[in-house]
Automatic annotation (TrEMBL):
Belongs to the 'phage' integrase family. XerC subfamily. The active site is at residues 156, 180, 251, 254, 277, 286. SUPFAM superfamilies: DNA breaking-rejoining enzymes, lambda integrase-like, N-terminal domain. Residues 116-299 form the Tyr recombinase domain. Residues 9-95 form the Core-binding (CB) domain. The gene is xerC. Gene3D superfamilies: 1.10.150.130, Intergrase catalytic core. GO terms for biological process: cell division; chromosome segregation; DNA transposition. GO terms for cellular component: cytoplasm. Keywords: Cell cycle, Cell division, Chromosome partition, Cytoplasm, DNA integration, DNA recombination, DNA-binding. This is Tyrosine recombinase XerC. NCBIfam families: PRK00283.1, recomb_XerC. It comes from the Bacteria.
Amino acid sequence: MTAKGVRRLPEERWLDAFADYLRAERRASEHTVRGYVKDIGQFADHLRKLGVTDWSNVAQHHVRSFLAERREHGSSGRSLGRKLSALKTFYRFLRRRGVTAHDPFADMRSPKAAKRLPVFLYPEEAAELLERPDVGTPLGLRDAAVLELLYGCGLRVGELTALDVGAVDLSLGVVAVHGKGSKERIVPIGEYASLAVRRYLAEARPLLLKRPDERALFLNARGTRLSDRGVRLVVSRYAAKLSRSVRLTPHALRHSFATHLLEAGADLRIVQELLGHANLSTTQVYTHMTRDHLRSVYGAAHPRA
Protein backbone atom coordinates (compact mmCIF):
# COMPACT_ATOMS: atom_id res chain seq x y z
CA MET A 1 0.00 0.00 0.00
CA THR A 2 1.42 3.41 -0.91
CA ALA A 3 1.91 6.25 1.52
CA LYS A 4 -0.64 8.28 -0.38
CA GLY A 5 -3.12 5.43 -0.14
CA VAL A 6 -2.69 5.17 3.61
CA ARG A 7 -3.24 8.91 4.10
CA ARG A 8 -6.53 8.70 2.29
CA LEU A 9 -7.88 5.90 4.48
CA PRO A 10 -10.88 7.01 6.54
CA GLU A 11 -10.27 7.05 10.28
CA GLU A 12 -11.93 3.68 10.94
CA ARG A 13 -9.75 2.02 8.30
CA TRP A 14 -6.40 3.23 9.55
CA LEU A 15 -7.37 2.48 13.14
CA ASP A 16 -8.29 -1.04 12.01
CA ALA A 17 -4.94 -1.32 10.20
CA PHE A 18 -3.11 -0.21 13.36
CA ALA A 19 -5.10 -2.70 15.45
CA ASP A 20 -4.16 -5.50 13.03
CA TYR A 21 -0.50 -4.44 13.28
CA LEU A 22 -0.64 -4.60 17.09
CA ARG A 23 -2.16 -8.08 17.03
CA ALA A 24 0.03 -9.57 14.31
CA GLU A 25 3.41 -7.93 14.82
CA ARG A 26 3.36 -6.82 18.45
CA ARG A 27 1.26 -9.78 19.69
CA ALA A 28 -0.64 -7.35 21.89
CA SER A 29 -3.60 -8.43 24.00
CA GLU A 30 -7.10 -7.28 23.06
CA HIS A 31 -7.08 -5.07 26.16
CA THR A 32 -3.94 -3.30 24.91
CA VAL A 33 -5.31 -3.04 21.36
CA ARG A 34 -8.52 -1.40 22.57
CA GLY A 35 -6.61 1.02 24.81
CA TYR A 36 -4.12 2.05 22.11
CA VAL A 37 -6.81 2.50 19.45
CA LYS A 38 -8.81 4.67 21.85
CA ASP A 39 -5.70 6.76 22.61
CA ILE A 40 -4.96 7.32 18.91
CA GLY A 41 -8.58 8.27 18.28
CA GLN A 42 -8.40 10.88 21.05
CA PHE A 43 -5.16 12.25 19.60
CA ALA A 44 -6.68 12.48 16.12
CA ASP A 45 -9.65 14.41 17.54
CA HIS A 46 -7.25 16.79 19.27
CA LEU A 47 -5.25 17.35 16.06
CA ARG A 48 -8.41 18.16 14.12
CA LYS A 49 -9.29 20.82 16.68
CA LEU A 50 -5.83 22.31 16.10
CA GLY A 51 -6.28 22.21 12.32
CA VAL A 52 -3.61 19.53 11.77
CA THR A 53 -4.63 17.16 8.97
CA ASP A 54 -1.39 15.34 8.06
CA TRP A 55 0.61 13.05 10.34
CA SER A 56 3.84 14.52 8.93
CA ASN A 57 2.91 17.95 10.30
CA VAL A 58 2.61 16.85 13.92
CA ALA A 59 5.14 18.54 16.22
CA GLN A 60 6.10 17.97 19.84
CA HIS A 61 4.01 20.91 21.02
CA HIS A 62 0.93 19.21 19.53
CA VAL A 63 1.71 16.08 21.55
CA ARG A 64 2.34 18.09 24.72
CA SER A 65 -0.91 20.03 24.33
CA PHE A 66 -2.77 16.73 23.90
CA LEU A 67 -1.24 15.30 27.07
CA ALA A 68 -2.01 18.53 28.94
CA GLU A 69 -5.63 18.34 27.79
CA ARG A 70 -5.93 14.74 28.97
CA ARG A 71 -4.38 15.68 32.32
CA GLU A 72 -7.04 18.38 32.71
CA HIS A 73 -9.64 15.67 32.08
CA GLY A 74 -8.27 13.67 35.02
CA SER A 75 -5.76 11.29 33.40
CA SER A 76 -3.09 10.11 35.84
CA GLY A 77 0.63 10.14 35.13
CA ARG A 78 0.49 6.42 34.45
CA SER A 79 -2.40 6.88 32.01
CA LEU A 80 -0.56 9.70 30.23
CA GLY A 81 2.51 7.48 29.95
CA ARG A 82 0.42 4.80 28.28
CA LYS A 83 -1.03 7.35 25.83
CA LEU A 84 2.46 8.53 24.91
CA SER A 85 3.54 4.90 24.44
CA ALA A 86 0.52 4.35 22.17
CA LEU A 87 1.43 7.40 20.07
CA LYS A 88 5.06 6.32 19.73
CA THR A 89 3.95 2.84 18.66
CA PHE A 90 1.53 4.36 16.16
CA TYR A 91 4.28 6.47 14.59
CA ARG A 92 6.52 3.42 14.28
CA PHE A 93 3.61 1.78 12.47
CA LEU A 94 3.27 4.82 10.14
CA ARG A 95 7.00 4.88 9.38
CA ARG A 96 7.03 1.16 8.58
CA ARG A 97 4.11 1.69 6.22
CA GLY A 98 5.93 4.55 4.52
CA VAL A 99 3.33 7.12 5.56
CA THR A 100 5.91 9.44 7.10
CA ALA A 101 9.57 9.54 8.02
CA HIS A 102 8.74 12.10 10.70
CA ASP A 103 9.20 11.36 14.43
CA PRO A 104 7.76 14.03 16.73
CA PHE A 105 8.67 12.00 19.82
CA ALA A 106 12.46 12.22 19.69
CA ASP A 107 13.81 12.84 23.22
CA MET A 108 10.31 12.97 24.72
CA ARG A 109 10.16 11.37 28.16
CA SER A 110 7.09 9.68 29.55
CA PRO A 111 5.28 11.55 32.36
CA LYS A 112 6.29 10.26 35.77
CA ALA A 113 3.70 8.05 37.40
CA ALA A 114 3.24 8.21 41.14
CA LYS A 115 4.44 4.99 42.73
CA ARG A 116 1.50 3.17 44.26
CA LEU A 117 1.65 -0.17 45.97
CA PRO A 118 -1.13 -2.45 44.77
CA VAL A 119 -4.16 -3.07 46.97
CA PHE A 120 -4.20 -6.54 48.51
CA LEU A 121 -6.13 -8.48 51.12
CA TYR A 122 -4.75 -10.01 54.28
CA PRO A 123 -5.11 -13.82 54.37
CA GLU A 124 -8.04 -13.72 56.78
CA GLU A 125 -9.81 -11.19 54.53
CA ALA A 126 -9.24 -13.38 51.49
CA ALA A 127 -10.76 -16.30 53.39
CA GLU A 128 -13.74 -14.13 54.35
CA LEU A 129 -14.26 -13.08 50.73
CA LEU A 130 -14.13 -16.65 49.45
CA GLU A 131 -16.85 -17.68 51.92
CA ARG A 132 -19.30 -15.02 50.68
CA PRO A 133 -20.88 -16.66 47.57
CA ASP A 134 -24.11 -18.58 48.12
CA VAL A 135 -23.14 -22.01 46.81
CA GLY A 136 -26.76 -23.10 46.92
CA THR A 137 -27.37 -21.32 43.60
CA PRO A 138 -25.80 -21.82 40.13
CA LEU A 139 -24.46 -18.24 39.99
CA GLY A 140 -23.15 -18.54 43.54
CA LEU A 141 -21.25 -21.71 42.60
CA ARG A 142 -19.86 -19.91 39.56
CA ASP A 143 -18.82 -16.90 41.64
CA ALA A 144 -17.10 -19.16 44.18
CA ALA A 145 -15.07 -20.80 41.40
CA VAL A 146 -14.24 -17.40 39.86
CA LEU A 147 -12.96 -16.01 43.17
CA GLU A 148 -11.00 -19.17 43.98
CA LEU A 149 -9.20 -19.11 40.60
CA LEU A 150 -8.44 -15.38 40.80
CA TYR A 151 -6.94 -15.72 44.27
CA GLY A 152 -5.72 -19.32 44.13
CA CYS A 153 -4.00 -19.07 40.73
CA GLY A 154 -3.21 -15.35 40.48
CA LEU A 155 -4.91 -14.97 37.10
CA ARG A 156 -5.48 -11.69 35.30
CA VAL A 157 -9.16 -11.00 34.68
CA GLY A 158 -8.71 -11.36 30.91
CA GLU A 159 -6.92 -14.68 31.39
CA LEU A 160 -9.79 -15.97 33.52
CA THR A 161 -12.56 -14.97 31.11
CA ALA A 162 -10.62 -16.43 28.15
CA LEU A 163 -10.51 -19.89 29.74
CA ASP A 164 -12.32 -22.68 27.93
CA VAL A 165 -13.47 -25.83 29.70
CA GLY A 166 -10.59 -27.78 28.14
CA ALA A 167 -7.99 -25.47 29.72
CA VAL A 168 -8.61 -26.95 33.16
CA ASP A 169 -7.27 -30.42 34.01
CA LEU A 170 -8.56 -31.25 37.48
CA SER A 171 -6.99 -34.71 37.44
CA LEU A 172 -3.55 -33.13 37.15
CA GLY A 173 -4.52 -30.06 39.17
CA VAL A 174 -3.42 -27.50 36.56
CA VAL A 175 -4.86 -24.83 34.30
CA ALA A 176 -3.37 -23.76 30.95
CA VAL A 177 -3.41 -19.97 30.83
CA HIS A 178 -2.87 -17.78 27.77
CA GLY A 179 -1.23 -14.64 29.09
CA LYS A 180 0.14 -11.44 27.62
CA GLY A 181 1.73 -11.79 24.20
CA SER A 182 -0.18 -15.06 23.67
CA LYS A 183 2.30 -16.83 25.95
CA GLU A 184 0.96 -19.98 27.58
CA ARG A 185 1.85 -20.94 31.12
CA ILE A 186 0.73 -23.85 33.28
CA VAL A 187 -0.49 -22.85 36.73
CA PRO A 188 -1.26 -25.32 39.53
CA ILE A 189 -4.76 -25.31 41.02
CA GLY A 190 -4.96 -25.68 44.78
CA GLU A 191 -7.33 -27.97 46.66
CA TYR A 192 -9.97 -25.32 47.39
CA ALA A 193 -10.00 -23.91 43.86
CA SER A 194 -10.11 -27.41 42.40
CA LEU A 195 -13.12 -28.31 44.53
CA ALA A 196 -14.91 -25.07 43.62
CA VAL A 197 -14.34 -25.58 39.88
CA ARG A 198 -15.37 -29.23 40.09
CA ARG A 199 -18.67 -28.31 41.79
CA TYR A 200 -19.30 -25.51 39.31
CA LEU A 201 -18.75 -27.83 36.33
CA ALA A 202 -20.94 -30.57 37.78
CA GLU A 203 -23.78 -28.57 39.33
CA ALA A 204 -23.91 -25.04 37.90
CA ARG A 205 -22.50 -24.81 34.38
CA PRO A 206 -24.99 -27.35 32.93
CA LEU A 207 -27.84 -25.18 34.26
CA LEU A 208 -26.36 -21.97 32.81
CA LEU A 209 -25.49 -23.53 29.45
CA LYS A 210 -27.77 -22.58 26.55
CA ARG A 211 -25.77 -23.93 23.59
CA PRO A 212 -24.05 -27.33 23.70
CA ASP A 213 -21.14 -26.03 21.59
CA GLU A 214 -20.27 -23.23 24.05
CA ARG A 215 -16.63 -23.75 25.12
CA ALA A 216 -16.27 -20.96 27.69
CA LEU A 217 -15.52 -22.18 31.20
CA PHE A 218 -17.38 -19.39 32.97
CA LEU A 219 -20.85 -18.44 31.76
CA ASN A 220 -23.15 -15.55 32.55
CA ALA A 221 -26.88 -15.80 33.22
CA ARG A 222 -27.51 -15.73 29.44
CA GLY A 223 -25.34 -18.78 28.88
CA THR A 224 -22.54 -16.94 27.07
CA ARG A 225 -18.93 -16.26 28.09
CA LEU A 226 -18.61 -14.21 31.26
CA SER A 227 -17.02 -10.84 30.40
CA ASP A 228 -14.19 -8.97 32.13
CA ARG A 229 -16.77 -6.44 33.31
CA GLY A 230 -18.91 -9.26 34.67
CA VAL A 231 -16.00 -10.55 36.75
CA ARG A 232 -15.29 -7.06 38.10
CA LEU A 233 -18.93 -6.78 39.18
CA VAL A 234 -18.72 -10.18 40.89
CA VAL A 235 -15.61 -9.14 42.85
CA SER A 236 -16.95 -5.71 43.85
CA ARG A 237 -20.29 -7.18 44.95
CA TYR A 238 -18.67 -9.58 47.41
CA ALA A 239 -16.02 -7.05 48.47
CA ALA A 240 -18.83 -4.74 49.63
CA LYS A 241 -19.72 -7.38 52.24
CA LEU A 242 -16.25 -7.56 53.81
CA SER A 243 -15.63 -6.41 57.38
CA ARG A 244 -13.02 -3.88 56.19
CA SER A 245 -14.13 -1.40 53.57
CA VAL A 246 -11.85 -1.90 50.57
CA ARG A 247 -12.20 -1.06 46.88
CA LEU A 248 -11.43 -4.47 45.48
CA THR A 249 -10.73 -5.42 41.87
CA PRO A 250 -9.88 -8.78 40.30
CA HIS A 251 -6.28 -7.59 40.04
CA ALA A 252 -6.19 -7.04 43.81
CA LEU A 253 -6.79 -10.78 44.21
CA ARG A 254 -3.81 -11.41 41.91
CA HIS A 255 -1.77 -9.04 44.10
CA SER A 256 -2.96 -10.93 47.19
CA PHE A 257 -1.93 -14.25 45.60
CA ALA A 258 1.63 -13.00 45.01
CA THR A 259 1.96 -11.24 48.36
CA HIS A 260 0.81 -14.24 50.39
CA LEU A 261 3.15 -16.59 48.51
CA LEU A 262 6.16 -14.36 49.19
CA GLU A 263 5.19 -13.86 52.83
CA ALA A 264 5.13 -17.65 53.19
CA GLY A 265 8.68 -17.88 51.82
CA ALA A 266 8.10 -18.66 48.13
CA ASP A 267 11.01 -17.96 45.78
CA LEU A 268 10.61 -14.72 43.82
CA ARG A 269 11.37 -16.40 40.48
CA ILE A 270 8.73 -19.06 41.08
CA VAL A 271 6.18 -16.32 41.78
CA GLN A 272 7.33 -14.60 38.58
CA GLU A 273 6.61 -17.78 36.61
CA LEU A 274 3.20 -18.25 38.23
CA LEU A 275 2.21 -14.65 37.47
CA GLY A 276 3.50 -14.80 33.90
CA HIS A 277 5.74 -11.76 34.31
CA ALA A 278 8.33 -11.36 31.57
CA ASN A 279 10.65 -9.34 33.84
CA LEU A 280 11.59 -10.08 37.43
CA SER A 281 11.45 -6.34 38.22
CA THR A 282 7.68 -6.44 37.71
CA THR A 283 7.37 -9.10 40.39
CA GLN A 284 9.71 -7.32 42.81
CA VAL A 285 7.04 -4.74 43.72
CA TYR A 286 5.51 -7.47 45.89
CA THR A 287 8.67 -7.75 47.97
CA HIS A 288 8.15 -4.09 48.96
CA MET A 289 4.58 -4.92 49.92
CA THR A 290 5.63 -7.80 52.15
CA ARG A 291 8.37 -5.72 53.81
CA ASP A 292 5.85 -2.95 54.54
CA HIS A 293 3.45 -5.51 55.99
CA LEU A 294 6.17 -7.00 58.19
CA ARG A 295 7.11 -3.52 59.44
CA SER A 296 3.49 -2.75 60.33
CA VAL A 297 3.10 -6.08 62.18
CA TYR A 298 6.38 -5.51 64.03
CA GLY A 299 5.39 -1.96 64.93
CA ALA A 300 2.04 -3.05 66.30
CA ALA A 301 3.20 -6.14 68.19
CA HIS A 302 6.77 -5.76 69.44
CA PRO A 303 7.17 -4.10 72.87
CA ARG A 304 10.32 -2.23 71.80
CA ALA A 305 9.20 -1.29 68.29
